[in-house]
Design brief:
This protein is of the alpha+beta class. The chain folds into 2 domains: 80 residues, Winged helix-like DNA-binding domain superfamily/Winged helix DNA-binding domain (Arc Repressor Mutant, subunit A, Orthogonal Bundle), CATH 1.10.10.10; 174 residues, GAF domain (Beta-Lactamase, 2-Layer Sandwich). It is built from 11 helices and 8 strands. The protein has a 6-stranded antiparallel β-sheet with strand order 5-4-3-8-7-6, sandwiched between helices. A two-stranded antiparallel sheet has the order 1-2. The longest helix has 21 residues. It starts with 5 loop residues before the first helix and ends in a 19-residue tail after the last helix.
Length: 280
């Protein structure tokens, strides 16, 4: 199911007596570090919409607990090592990563690009495994890095596995998260879903990063989590038609090999968008 941000949940939970508002605000502060290494209380206040005194109390508490660290030289905070501990239980529940990695690395070396697996999380895809060749250009994926669903092949491939009701809910969430982005990329996003329905992979010609062209295939659903696999290649290395006619079938075959390896066969009941990779 599409997962809203902590900030969105906080906004929707006013009046819920069972909702721990202070905890939610702390998570909103932690989420605000996405894409940033150092942030001060004023910057966090702007990013979260929380009052600066509230932010100051939350950052102090999070720093005392080890989830943030404070740098007095610049009077700013960074995410602390304790936050990294929270990643391990999630990744430990995805043992297919270790099985898939050698196959991913072979393809990455072969095409001189990156090959990654991502997990659908709200309006973002989050990398959970990645392999790369030496020089991959300006985009170097890493575990835990988020990328937008609507602008990426990986996001479109993952969304293609959603049943109709969940797919409609995700579209509403994408529009609410960033109306301008949704308006600008909606048609390309839906075309990606159509491509996955027809050939089990979709292309992305620089929609996220102009210098990188990508292709992605639906992988599988695991405990209602949607996973997709992509391959990103610097545009200058590709010949016309190579992405869709050569790399696409190879990524589709890689996805099938991984499903066989981890005993996740194709489902007889694909999502409404036609991907043949939904499993439960």
């Amino acid at each position: 199911m599409p997962t809203p941000s902590a900030e969105a949940v906080l906004a929707d939970s006013a009046g819920d007596a069972a909702f721990a508002t202070t905890l939610a605000k702390g998570l909103v502060v932690l989420e605000a570090f996405e894409g940033a290494k150092l942030l001060g209380n004023m910057e966090l206040s702007v990013r979260t919409g929380l009052p600066r005194p509230t932010v100051a109390r939350l950052t102090h508490t999070l720093a005392e607990l080890g989830y943030l660290t404070y740098d007095p030289r610049v009077a700013k905070y960074a995410v602390g090592a304790r936050a990294l501990r929270m990643l391990h239980p999630l990744l430990a529940g995805m043992p297919f990563r270790q099985l898939a990695r050698p196959l991913m690395q072979d393809l990455a070396y072969s095409v001189r690009g990156t090959v990654s697996i991502g997990l659908l999380d709200g309006s973002s895809m989050v990398y959970v495994e990645t392999a790369r060749s030496g020089d991959v250009g300006p985009h170097t994926p890493d575990i835990g890095m988020p990328i937008p669903v609507v602008r990426t092949a990986m996001g479109r491939a993952a969304a293609s596995m959603l049943p109709e009701a969940e797919a409609a809910r995700l579209e509403r969430q994408l529009e609410a998260a960033d109306g301008a982005m949704w308006s600008g990329y909606r048609d390309l996003y839906r075309d990606g879903l159509r491509q996955c329905a027809e050939r089990q992979f979709c292309t992305c010609f620089g929609d996220y990063m102009p210098a990188i062209h990508a292709i992605a295939a639906p992988l599988f659903r695991l405990r209602d989590r949607c996973f997709a696999i992509n391959c990103g290649i610097p545009a200058f290395r590709l010949q016309q038609g190579q992405l869709e006619h050569e790399i696409g079938p190879r990524v589709r075959a890689l996805a099938e090999s991984i499903r066989v390896l981890v005993a996740r066969p194709e489902s007889a009941e694909p999502g409404s968008r036609g991907a043949k990779t939904q499993t439960r």
